[in-house]
Q: What sequence folds into this?
């Protein structure tokens, strides 16, 4: 690999930077992720409406803010998952059986998307090393720390 793409985080857009650093290019904008979040919100609204639009549960749901994004620029795991699906990539949750079998030999994995204190970051294999990308100072980790599996 000739060079490593590292998008510096602006504001609270860690999901955008996490995805772009994972994919090694400027593939997602805040507008792209907001669009995915709004689509998910609409799908959730339609599912909730199936229980009856006059129900108290539906009215309460409509009064709540989006669970897929907030005003600070934070995006949910569902938004990240849907964004990755555009590229044919799939998130495997750490508490799933599939993940447990992958962790027998994690060196074979190409990347991990992690969340620490509501901050998304990527650990990605680049060449023979794994690099932690898009980490903030609050994480007490290096911004481009090298993780070498022995």
A:
């Amino acid at each position: 690999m000739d060079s490593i793409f590292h998008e510096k985080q602006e504001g609270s857009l860690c999901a955008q930077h996490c995805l772009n650093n994972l994919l090694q290019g400027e593939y997602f904008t805040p507008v792209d992720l907001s669009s995915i979040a709004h689509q998910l919100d609409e799908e959730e609204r339609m599912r909730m409406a199936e229980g009856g639009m006059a129900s108290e549960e539906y009215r309460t749901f409509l009064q709540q803010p989006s669970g897929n994004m907030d005003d600070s620029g934070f995006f949910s795991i569902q938004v990240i998952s849907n964004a990755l699906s555009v590229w044919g990539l799939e998130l495997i949750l750490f508490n799933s059986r599939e993940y447990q079998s992958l962790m027998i030999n994690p060196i074979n994995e190409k990347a991990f998307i992690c969340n620490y204190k509501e901050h998304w970051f990527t650990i990605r294999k680049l060449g023979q090393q794994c690099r932690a990308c898009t980490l903030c100072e609050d994480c007490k980790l290096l911004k481009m720390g090298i993780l070498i599996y022995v």
